[in-house]
Amino acid sequence: MKYFTRNIGVHTGTATFYLHEPTAEIDIDRKYPVMVVVPGGAYMWTSDRESEPVALEFFSKDYHVMVVNYSTEGLAAYQDVAALPIDPTSKFPNPLVEVAEAIADLRENAEEWAVDTDQISVLGFSAGGNLTGLLAVYWHESWLEELVNKDRTLYKPNRIILAYAPLDFVGIHFEESSAINLALMGTLTPGTEERKKVSPIYHVSKDTPPVFLWHTTEDPLVSVENSLKMAVALQEKNIPYELHIYQKGVHGVSLGDSRTSRKPNQSNKQAASWVELVMGWLG
C-alpha cells in the first residue's frame, strides 16, 4: 500500500491517500476505483471518526481511498464568542475548491497511481456531506473552474454518497448566531441568498451525478428531511439516486460499530448496513 499526505489549496487543507499497488501476482494492469472520503465536523474541524476507519473499510473492498481534510479553524476557535474568527478558512467556497483540487490530483496522476478515472465516488458525512453535495451541484460551473484553475472534467465526481448531510439551510436548518453559519458562510447572521448558495437541494440540475443518500429518522442534529427533500429534487431532474432511511440512530453514526463509536449509542447494527448497500449500488 502507498500511504502519504499532500497539502491542498492555499490554507491548511490536506489529502491523505491509501493506494493499492498493482502486482503481477494478481494483475499488474489493474486500475482501481476511488472512494474520496469527506469527514464532517460542522465546518469547525474534520472528524477522525469519519476519516481513517472509513478509509480502511473501503480500502479493504479493493478501492483506492483519499481522505480530504479541508481547511477549518479548529473547534477551539469557536469556544470564545469574543474571539470568533473574522474570515474563517472554512468559508464557502474555500473547502469546495480544496476538494475539487484533490480530485483533480487523482486524475492527473491516474497512470502512476493506477486510478480508474471513470470510477471516482465522493462520500461525505454530515458537514462533509454538505460539501460533497455542493460539489455535486457546482462541479460544472465556470466560476468554480476559475477558482480551481483546472479543467472541470478533472474534478467531476462520478458518484456521490451523502450520509446524514445538511442540504437545506433555508427551509430546514437556520438558526440565528449559529457557529456553523460563521464557519460556512462567514457571518453569524447570513441572509437568504447566502444560505441558499450553500444548500445543494436548490441547485440540482441535469449535470448532477447519481446520488446515494442515507439518514436516520431519529437524528436530532440534522433532520432526515434533508435527505427526503434531496431525493425529491433528484427525482424532479431525473437524476438516478438511491435513498435509505433507518429509524434508529443518533447523528454521526459513521460505520455504526466499535471502530467509530465514541459513545455506546453510536453503534447501530442496522444502520451499519449502509456500507454493503453502497457497494451494491456502486455495482
UniProtKB/TrEMBL annotation:
InterPro entries: AB_hydrolase_fold (IPR029058), BD-FAE-like_dom (IPR049492), GDXG_lipolytic_enzyme (IPR050300). Residues 29-232 form the BD-FAE-like domain. Pfam families: BD-FAE. It comes from Trichococcus shcherbakoviae subsp. psychrophilus. Keywords: Hydrolase. One of its GO terms (molecular function) is hydrolase activity. PANTHER family: AB HYDROLASE SUPERFAMILY PROTEIN C4A8.06C, PEPTIDASE S9 PROLYL OLIGOPEPTIDASE CATALYTIC DOMAIN-CONTAINING PROTEIN. The keyword NADP does not apply. The keyword Lyase does not apply. This is Alpha/beta hydrolase.
